[in-house]
Write a structure and sequence with these properties.
By secondary structure, the protein is an all-alpha fold. It has one domain. The protein is 65% helix and 0% strand. Helix 1 runs parallel beside helix 15 and helix 3 packs across helix 13 (303-321). The longest helix is centred in the C-terminal third of the chain and has 31 residues, at 353-383. It is globular. The N and C termini lie close together (11 Å).
Length: 413
């Protein structure tokens, strides 16, 4: 089966090749691995090892960072506003949907939060209060992902320019008039901050440091909803590109109203299932903790799943479409100049489909297994070892369901 590269930049490669092993074996084995992880934790993990610390944000940028951020902002806005360049040749969709959306988060695995150092929305020094919540960032993230997944032309340079201008204005008006800190209102900054918590290079002992880094997300109100929206939006994106989705809904999938409804329902369902799992944990654990408190505390446990979804879904877009960088930069704003005398490249599919499929399955499983570990550690801290496994039954069900759903999307696209 051939690779499929979308020209709209709305998603990654849907199909990467025929499965090397039967699909039912993949599903059964994956579910079993998650269940074994759960049982092993119950037997061997009797005390919480994550030590809480306060997270401090620093929005300051160097002069070079601000200049680079302005350049990024210019390349996102100017091509659509100045010229009528197509998505196939413009640098704007590559900058947004390939580098900012997936490339920089992947680099964050190695170097931490790189995006904060050149954030194109942080060009003006605006004083703010101590961060409290991320509800504004959640709303703007919904708008940005709706544009990516529901709007028919997310790769159109003019559309990208307009959307980013609106995002720039919204973020800075909220900062100026409501004294909100950047992390509270900037969805891209919050996205990169969260993914940087999974940085691979940590101090020794490695695994404990990784868990501690993830477990110490900022305890801002609503941060769990942002993580869940990260999962819900990619879940919708994956399902809508499958033949299964078309067989269920037919031509309606091309209707913007129907797509918007399904986009909203997918995210609502993700949030409601999560909230029910938190409610179940409180009742079974016999705790007097408030639901909102438990919901916020468990938010970090879903982050590895969100990252696994993001990487597996968009990795091929990064690997292959990034090869057009110099061709697109040859005429950066579509005025007819030729900086590098670059010709249109032919995409080199240098990674075999079986390799991509194996990486996708492996990352998916690792993300879900890490989620189970984080949830168990927190459950032990909140409810004690004896009750920890009982409180996690619904979380385990959600984790297994998300694992199977993710593998289903990878297999039947």
């Amino acid at each position: 089966m051939d690779y499929i590269i979308p020209l709209t930049f709305g998603h990654g490669v849907v199909n990467v090749g025929d499965l090397p092993i039967p699909f039912d074996i993949v599903l059964n084995t994956s579910a079993l691995v998650v269940l074994i992880t759960f049982v092993y934790l119950k037997v061997s993990w009797k005390e919480s090892i994550i030590a809480h610390r306060e997270e401090i944000f620093d929005d300051k940028q160097s002069l070079f960072g601000k200049l680079f951020g302005f350049l990024i902002l210019f390349l996102l806005v100017a091509p659509g506003v100045i010229s009528n360049e197509s998505a196939k040749t413009s640098i704007a969709p590559l900058m947004l949907w390939v580098f900012l959306w997936i490339g920089v988060p992947v680099l964050g695995l190695l170097f931490g939060d790189i995006y904060a150092k050149f954030n194109p929305l942080n060009l003006f020094p605006i004083s703010s209060n101590k961060p409290q919540s991320v509800y504004f960032a959640c709303v703007l993230f919904i708008g940005l992902t709706w544009f990516e997944l529901v709007w028919r032309k997310p790769g159109n340079p003019l559309n990208i320019g307009v959307v980013f201008i609106l995002l720039f204005i919204s973020v800075n008006l909220l900062r100026y008039f409501l004294k909100k800190s950047l992390i509270e209102v900037d969805p891209l900054l919050l996205l990169h901050y969260l993914y940087s918590k999974l940085k691979l290079f940590n101090s020794s002992p490695y695994f404990r440091s990784l868990l501690d880094n993830i477990g110490n997300l900022a305890r801002l109100r609503g941060i769990e909803y942002f993580v869940l929206l990260m999962i819900g939006t990619v879940t919708y994106d994956g399902l809508r590109e499958t033949t299964f989705w078309y067989e269920q809904f037919g031509p309606r999938i091309n209707d913007m109203g129907f797509s918007t409804m399904m986009f909203v329902l997918m995210n609502l369902a993700t949030i409601l299932f999560y909230r029910f799992a938190c409610f179940f944990a409180i009742k079974i654990g016999g705790s007097d903790l408030e639901l909102n408190k438990v919901s916020n505390l468990f938010g970090h446990t879903m982050l590895p799943i969100a990252f696994a979804y993001h990487v597996t879904h968009y990795l091929t877009l990064l690997l292959f479409e990034s090869q057009t960088l110099f061709y697109r930069l040859n005429d950066p704003i579509g005025t007819g100049i030729s900086l590098f005398n670059a010709k249109e490249p032919s995409i080199n599919y240098f990674v075999e489909p079986i390799v991509i499929w194996s990486v996708q399955v492996g990352v998916t499983l690792l993300g879900h297994m890490l989620s189970v570990v984080l949830a168990h550690d927190l459950a032990v801290k909140l409810f004690g070892h004896q009750q920890s496994d009982k409180t996690q039954y619904i979380f385990l069900f959600i984790t297994v369901a998300l694992t199977l759903q993710a593998l289903f999307v990878l297999s039947v696209g």
